[in-house]
Structures are given as structure tokens and as C-alpha cells.
Amino acid sequence: MQRIKTLTSSDKGHMLHHNGSFNATDEWIVFDTRNDETKIGETGEIGIVNVKTKEEKIIYLTTDQTVYGPGVGAVSFHPSENRVIFIHGLLDAHKGMPYGMTRRFGMMVDLSSPLKGIPADSRDVTSPYQAGTLRGGSHSHCWSPEGKMISFTYNDEFVSPELRTVGVMVKPDKEIFVDSASGNIQGKYYSAIIADVIAEPEHGSDQISKAFDECWLGNISDDPNPSIVFQGTTKNKDGEDVVEIFLVDIDPQKILQDKGAIGNEGEKIRVPKGIVSKRLSYSENGLSDLRHWLRSSPDGKFVYALAKDKNGFNQIARCEVQTGELKNISNLDFSISSPINIDPKGEKITFIANNNVYLFDLKSLKADKITDFGSDDLPLLGVPVFSRGGSKLAFNQFVEKDGRKNVQIKMIY
């Protein structure tokens, strides 16, 4: 077994996001203070912990926090700057209009100016709408590998709020100004929706009713037009839901040129002209219904996901981007119970199963259990996260102290 140390001990939750938990130098890990993954709306703190000294610092606090909001959570570090991004509920949250999937945005904090929030996406709910704004809720934000763009999932507040889709934030060509109406947010980025979703896709078509849980494809540092892969819910010929993998190339110039994509009152935000999704996989059963995020190999040749085998066990599946071939590459005699993460070199995938952390070797196609918790130990949750250098793994587990159970951060090194 590997060496493990518990990094946090304060009497609060220390929830890790599924990506970007370590800063660029692997000195700090960022967290929100949830003890329950469903309680972002009730959570008011973002913190960091030093991996060597175990020092904890609070870097953001909401004001007037109640059980109805605003709420914060799901926080990630920028890949090269000491800046984080996280979900933030609307500042006017109250009992009648609480935190929710259509009432949130991305907030950033620079560690050089802690406690000072910087909205990422602009939100404009007063018509006529400003190009590059949203009028719903963005969440599950993910920096692109070079840190210039941010992907997110999105639910509109006014038109078909149940239809989840995927979007991207790019640097604007000029500053966006929105008025100060309640529910509006002045942000730093230009936002666009990049996947069309409809309520009732045609059976056997490539139309989708939900786009979600995406990732950036490969190492895009030298690519001016990178790609995002996402999960899309399709209908097979029998009318059954099947989740497949889709790819969309991101051209910031095309996004910025189509100012009309913002739409009018009563309309959905449209995908900018020239931004087109391509279906990669055509499989029989599609991906697993266990919530997880796609993961890319560093060279962008493969996309990894979860898919069920004939026994109903979640296995690691690999999609070859060039051909779209999707197949299970693990043959475990148990079911993976968490999302997955891939190490920076693209050699190993980590996950949780049977209340333990595992590493799956992508060459040998074998899994190693690297912790030794028993069924009576307090539960692990979330997904382990690799450090930027790849030599460390952070994960969440409940720890009991003085009769109280809190989500704490542990690190394998």
C-alpha cells in the first residue's frame, strides 16, 4: 500500500472537485466546505490547504449565506496561475428563488487578493440581451489545459430549463456591459453554447436531448482551435436513451463573430455559426448512467469513459477519436463506483471501488488497489484527483472526530 496522510482536520467539510484540485506547483489543494455533495446552495466557504504544512486558509466567503443561497462549490485551480473558479449562486437568492441549476455562475478568486470575487461569465436576463452573456446557470467549470478558456455545463432559466447543454467561455473582443438588474452578472469572459439540444430527438438520429460532463481533448497548448468532447443523450431506433460521445471544435473567432447567437426574448441561446458537433461513437449500449466526466489522453487520440459490461459492472471504456470505436478495456470482477481521472502522462486512470482507491494501468490493462480500507471504514466519496506532476493523489473520506463526521482530504504520495 502507498503512504497516506490526512491533510485537513478542521470541523467542516473539505470537498474536492473532479478536476484541478492542485495548484500549478502542487503546493496547495482547493476545496469547498460541503459535507454533502448536494448542498452547494447551503455552503458559503472556499478554502485551500498546504500539502506540506497542512495549513488551511479560507479564500472566499459568501455574504448573507442561508440554506437558500447564494452557495458556492465545485472549485478548480487554473493550470498555471494562482487563480480558482467555482460555482456561485445568485446574490439575490432567497426562499422564493433559491440556489438552483438555472441560478448560478462561475466566480473566480486570485490568491493574491483573497476574499475578492471576480465573476467569470456575464449573465443578462433583461432584453435585449448582450452578446456573449448567459441567462441561466453555468456549472462544473473546467479550465482548458493552457488556461485561456473555460468549459461548463448550462441550464437556461427561461426556455426549457431541463435541457442541459455544454458551453465555453473565451476572452472577449471587447468588454461586455450588462445593466444592474436583479439576476444580472458582469463577468470577464464571452460565453457561448456549443451543443444543440432538443426535447425529443428523432429515433436513430444524431440529435441529442442532453449534452453534459465534457472535457478538453488532448494537450491544446499549440492549437488555436482546440476541441471539446462531451456526452450526448441520443435515441436509438427503438426510442431508448443511449449516451454517446460527441466532439466539437472551438474556434474563438467564429464564436465572437456571431453576435446574433444570443437570441431574443423567448428563444434559446443559439450555437454560433460554424460551431458544429460531430458524433464520435455509435455503440449498442452507450456509456454508463453513473455520473462521470470524459477524460482525454494527453495526445488527444483517445477518450476514456465508463460503460457497463454484460454483468452491469461499470468498466473503463476507450473511444478512439479517429475512428469512433468505443470498447471496454477493463474486465474487472467488480463495478467502478466513482468518476475517473487520468494522470498527466496518460499512463494510469484512478477511481474508487469497494471503498478503496484504485489505479488502472493503461498499458497492462490491470487495476491495483492502492488503499486498504475495509467495508466498516467510513466512506470515500467523489473521485481521486492527480497532482499536476502526477506523483500524488488526493481523495475525500469522512473522518470522525469528537463525535462529528466531516469530509476530509487525504493524500497518497
From TrEMBL:
Database matches in InterPro entries: 6-blade_b-propeller_TolB-like, DUF3748
Taxonomy, superkingdom: Bacteria
Gene3D superfamilies named in the record: TolB, C-terminal domain
Annotated SUPFAM superfamilies: DPP6 N-terminal domain-like
One Pfam family cited in the UniProt record for this chain: DUF3748
Name listed for the protein in its UniProt record: DUF3748 domain-containing protein
